[in-house]
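Memo to structure team: turn this sequence into structure tokens by end of day. - J.P.
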Amino acid sequence: MVDSLRERALRLLARREHSRAELRRKLAVHAGDPDEVARVLDDLEARGWLSERRVVEHAVHARRGRFGARRIERDLLARGISEAAIAAVRADLRSGELEAAREVWRRKFGARQPRTPAERARQARFLQGRGFDLDVIMKVLKGGDED
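Reply from structure team:
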């Protein structure tokens, strides 16, 4: 049974990086004993095939162009990534936040400044939904190149 769990885990990891919590959830359905799943996951981590750091790096790289730091952090927490691993990349996420927000805003609204308060509110809500902080959103909507 352990070999089939290992094979199943390797097939999942071949498709994309998974967190330990994600793999545990997916493998638990097929295991008779939760200790078997833990042994397989420990073995995969020892061999370097399961890495929380790689999951975080991949998620940040894949989502940086579309989402803000808050949204990326929330998604990582939902995937079972530890707070310590998220804290390790938090500074990088925050440093590129303003430029990422400007790029997302340009793609959606064509770099057209809001003309009415209603339009401004709509654009702000859009950026908030993407996970950008309010201070970053205000800088984007005011325009200019100040940081």
